[in-house]
Design a protein that fits this description.
By secondary structure, the protein is of the alpha+beta class. Helices cover about 35% and strands about 30% of the residues. It contains four helices and four strands; from the N terminus they run βββααβαα.
């Protein structure tokens, strides 16, 4: 399953981390970070990964955004988890974090 990714990491910078947003059963959202979003999505759908996605099966990747470092991706994950649902998708189209 392909996802709309925001390519913002310079070429040759190594494999970047991505913040991703999944739509899960019951219309719930799940946010996480990974180096390979497609592989992480497969792990979630196979029951390997977060306890949340074992309870609320992932349906599709809604969005992802690349970051230069794991720390940057983790900070963005903390931010998105604090946002109301109505602003989570919009987060991926902004230039900030």
């Amino acid at each position: 399953m392909s996802c709309p990714c925001s390519e913002s990491v310079p070429v040759g910078a190594g494999k970047p981390y991505a913040l991703y947003l999944l739509e899960c059963a019951g219309g719930r959202y799940y946010a996480g970070i990974a180096r390979d979003v497609e592989d992480r999505f497969r792990a979630h759908t196979n029951g390997k990964g977060a306890k949340f996605t074992r309870a609320w099966a992932p349906i599709r990747i809604l969005a992802s955004k690349l970051y230069d470092s794991q720390g940057d991706a983790l900070r963005a994950e903390i931010l998105i988890k604090r946002l109301p649902r109505s602003k989570k998708i919009r987060f991926f189209s902004t230039a900030e974090l």
